[in-house]
Design brief:
The structure is a homodimer of 120-residue chains. Chain A has 120 residues and is α+β, with helices and mostly antiparallel strands. Chain A has four helices and four strands; from the N terminus they run βαβααββα. The longest helix of chain A is centred in the C-terminal third of the chain and has 30 residues. At the A-B interface, strand 1 and helix 4 of A face strand 1 and helix 4 of B. Chain B binds a DNA duplex (30 and 30 nucleotides) through helix 3.
Chain lengths: 120, 120
Amino acid sequence: MAEPLDPDMFHPMCPSSALPFQIGDKWTGMIVLCLAGGPRRFTELRVPLRAITPKVLSQTLRTMCRDGLVTRTAYDENPPRVEYELTELGRSLLVLIDAVREWSDQYLPAILAARESHQV
Amino acid sequence: MAEPLDPDMFHPMCPSSALPFQIGDKWTGMIVLCLAGGPRRFTELRVPLRAITPKVLSQTLRTMCRDGLVTRTAYDENPPRVEYELTELGRSLLVLIDAVREWSDQYLPAILAARESHQV
DNA sequence: GATACTGGTTACCTCAACGATACCGGCCTA
DNA sequence: TAGGCCGGTATCGTTGAGGTAACCAGTATC
């Protein structure tokens, strides 16, 4: 259904951490992006989000479920299979994320430059 | 130059706290909005942001200065006068804030409804 | 019997953001 | 000389998001 996720899709040194912008909790935005291409399993999500611990991932997914951003579907198989999928509501965040991305392309360098030249 | 700010412009019970979105630190987005209408003095900013303490306000403004979002101009008068003003970079955030607002009008009710119906 | 896989949970800890409160220096006015 | 205005600082305490490490149940496979 969906191609495997790029293990490097979220690079730890990515300057986007300087963005004055956050989608939900720390990992919410990245999870939305991971799910953009179709439903994913718990363990699949851990691959691109290398730094996330299972506790925080399940915590974040639970919050996103509660807010109606994702659905959780458990299949009665062995080994167990659970799939998370964006709802229409969750998918609507992609538009915002794209707006942030465009802003970032245009203005993030200016923020980094301002920090650079701001001697304390 | 600019009309006085509405002391009630940020209501403590505003459901926007449920938005899966944040501009910078806790107060950054609101400060940008306060400065949208023109330069403001330190004390002027404290009016609409009733709950902010001077420490946090000056801290946040310093960060925004560092990132090139606002400028700080101190006039040599008595009593002292210091004005904060959005830079072009800071002003560019207004576009994003507006996008968030539109998203909010359309989808925030769905989030609140999802929380409502999500019995734990 | 041991080990592995999946999808988690539990208990504990850390740290930075945020808040409360008090205070400061320079000038002006009463 | 006492107080107020302005633009902050200094000190301390709290809180909660997030991280660490270990563990668990159920099944299958070696």
